[in-house]
Amino acid sequence: MTSAVADAGPLMHLHEIDRFSLLQLFAPLHIPDAVWQETVDQGRLTQDDVLPLVNVQRSSLFPSEIDRFIQDNHLENLQAGECQCLKSLTKNLYFSSDSISNNLKAMSPSSQRAPRQR
Fold this sequence. Notes:
This protein is an alpha/beta fold and 118 residues long. It contains six helices and three strands, in the order βαβααβααα. It has helices at residues 8-16, 33-41, 47-50, 63-73, 80-92, 97-107; strands spanning 2-5, 26-32, 56-59.
């Protein structure tokens, strides 16, 4: 099975259309603390909605680690859950954190890279 990191939006929308069970396709399914706070702690989902998914793993990241990741990748405009999802990708999936960081920098609106000449 493939691992995944879940943001709040997909969790809430899959629940709305009664397709939450599709999340069982991923193992493990990482849910960062900020996403848990945006969904369960704010009452958008209940623990009873999420906990039957036996593949769920809550992901905790150190605040200093997240702050550094946000600063290094110019992600100040994203919400906490989105930032923690992106940081979790660098830890949990089979991508090097350097390549993800470089890709995020390239996608950043503050990136001033000139287009490649062919």
